Every structure is written in structure tokens, then in C-alpha cells.
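ugh ok so i messed up the first submission bc i forgot one of the chains. this is the corrected input, ALL of the components this time, i swear. 435 residues overall. if the numbers dont match what u have on ur side tell me asap before i send this to the collaborators (the ones from the other lab, u know who)
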Amino acid sequence: MWRSPVTPLAKLLEAALFASGRPVPLDELYGLDSESSPAAFAMALDEIRECYDNQGHGVELVELGGGWQVLTRPEFTETIERAQLASRPQRLSSAALETLAIVAYRQPIARADIEEIRGVSVGGMLKTLLERGLIDVVGRAEGLGRPLLYGTTPAFLEQFALRHLGELPRADELAVALRAEPRPL
Amino acid sequence: MPSVPYVPEADAGGESSFVVELDQFSGPLDLLLTLIREEQVEITDIPIARICEQFLARIHSLGLGQAADYLEMAARLLRIKVQMLLPRHGDDETWDDPRAELVRRLLEYQQVREVVDVLEHRGEERRSRFARGYLPVDPVTPPESPLSLSLPELLAAVDRVLRLLREPDVHDIVPRALDVEGAIATIRAVLAMRVSARWRDVVALGAEPWEVLSALLGLLELARRGELRLRQQRPFADVEISRDAASEAA
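and heres the new structure output, hopefully the right one now
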């Protein structure tokens, strides 16, 4: 039995999410209809998701990168890419992921501190990550030379299907450990 | 300076000396962790001599471009190894394990690797889904509305513009050399007649800037040579010029 989103709000949200190429944060969605309550929005999103999941759609509604987004289902990715209709972003190297992980937990962080943790120089790596929009310069440190400080961008959350940084594993424990001062063992 | 870096003979295991393994490890800590795992030893109690030996053997087969970071770690390991060999003074409780800092870094790095695994997994999940292929376009500025204007009007406007251009407001900048020598001659002439003088005596009232500057430099030069003294009671007050008593006595 065919049942598309029926409430007008669900239809409106579906249209808005289709129109946007990026994840749309909830508070931006709220702007679509000032009459409806946040609860109504949540129900409408549920409605769309259920419709996509249960009625044989090639797309799904996911929450990531601080917002909601309509994405294709993974089982079609290979075929779509083979037909050259869309291509996946390049996979990041292990070294790039290390750098990103450190920036994500320790931001804002200066280059020297990343190098201290990784044990290698990361100048070229930071440039690559900057170019790919995964990190950004978020300020300058006090102290000698006032080095640039780096942080992750919304594109980082999006590429790693994270709603927010708190979703990273054991963020609290790891962040504490990563911050821990050297102590005698 | 030799342009070819020293490459140790790779006789161990019969491997060639130029096996480039750039991407196998993401850094010296990664290699170190791998060795520790392979040797199945505790991070907190590393058999430093053995690990150090293996580390050195392994980096000989690494690409030279990355070797600097690895060599630094090799040097660190050797130092720790030496420190471990030194006889311990005092009781064991006050002994600082030379491996402590390395252990801290390894534990820290291990956590980074854990996060990398998660990122890898989640990144792969996201990579396997496409979003709408929509690229936001830069907002286009609306085109100007066509001018409603007759040809004579346009020509008149052009004429007005050209007329304005006829008298370009151009300054010629003429380099004017300062005449310090001339100023010095004037100052000497004034002081030859009077024991003391004032600024106004050496610089005429309507003097050109270059004359003022020449007089100033001349005065400073003569003061430096000790021919006269300069005094000013307060900022912007008149400058008092007097013959230097010492040079006069000479």
C-alpha cells in the first residue's frame, strides 16, 4: 500500500531537504514554518524517514553533520559510481585521519602540538586538510610566534557522518587522556 | 658534502636496501606500536634494547623521504637504551624510568589510532552514500537595467568627461637636493659676528622646506663637530645657538 508523507509539514520538509545539498540543521528547518512546534517538526521528520525506509525508496533520511540530509542508499553506490553519475570523495590516508582525529579532540590546536603527538611533521598534511575543507584556522595562540590554531569544520562532521563532536567515541575519556600532562608511571 | 645519504648494508634477511614503505606506517610511533604488538610486549614495560634494534632494522628499509622523523625516534630510543644501562643510584623508588615519556606518548598515540579506526569506519559509511549533486551557486548580481538615453545625450556626457580630463591634476615632483654645506656656511657666518644666535637668525621667515631641513642638518652637524651648542628650553621653543666655549678656547 502506497503512503507518501501526508502532513503538509512533512512534504515541506521533504522539499526543503531535497533542495539543499548540505545537511540542514534543525533550527534552519524551523524557519520554514513558524506555526509548527519543534515536536511537530520531529514528527514530520519521522514521517519522512519511515516513508523512505518502509516503502521501497532508493534514498534515506539521515541525521549527520549537525543537520538532516537525504542520501542515497549504500547498496546503489557502486552502480551509480560505475555509471559515472557521481563519484565518491577520495579515501583519506591513515596519516590524514590521525591528524584529523587529533585536531577533533584537541581543537583549537597548534601545528607543533599535533606534531608532538604524531611524531612527524604535519605541515603538508594540514595544507591538504585545509584545502579539502575538513579543518580551518580558528585563531592564533598566545605566546611565541602566535602560531595558528586549527579546528574541524562542519564538512568534517558531514564527511564522517557525525551529528556533533560529542559523537566521537568516548569523547570525554579520550579527550581527558589526550590532554593529560606527562606524569611519572 | 656527499649528496647520497648513508644507507646501511641490508644484509639482514637478504632484503634490498631500497624497499620503499612510505605508506605502510604513518609515522615512527605507528611503527613502534606495530613492533610492540608483534613482539607481544607491554607498552608500559618495553624491552628497549630489543625494540630499538628492531626499529633500526625496520627503518633501513623505509623510504628516505620520511626517514628524518624515524631517525629522530631512533636516536631517542638509543638514548633511552643507554640511560637504562646506567647504574641506578639510590633506592628504586626515586628512580625515574627513562622510558616514561615514551610510554606516555605511545599511550596517547594509541588512543589516536583508536579514534582513527572509528573515523575510518564512519567515513566509509558516509562515502557509500551520495547526497544531492547540488552545488550552491554564487548569488548573481541582477543585470543593470538598460539605459534610456539618446545618442546626443551620450555624446554630451562623453564630452563632459573628456573636458574634465583636459586639465589633469598632476604634480611634478622635482627632487631638490638639500644644501647642508651652504647652511653650514651661513651658520658660521652668523656665529662669526655673534656669540649666540637664534633659529630665526639662520633660517629666514619664509624659508622653503628644503632650506629649513638644510639648516637643521647643518646645525646638528656643527653641534656634532663641537663648533656650537644647541639648546631648546621646551619642545617647539626657539632654538638657541651659541659658540662652543671649549672650541673657542682651543
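quick check: The mean pLDDT of chain B is 78. that seems consistent at least. Residues 180-249 of chain B form a domain with the Arc Repressor Mutant, subunit A fold (CATH 1.10.10.580).
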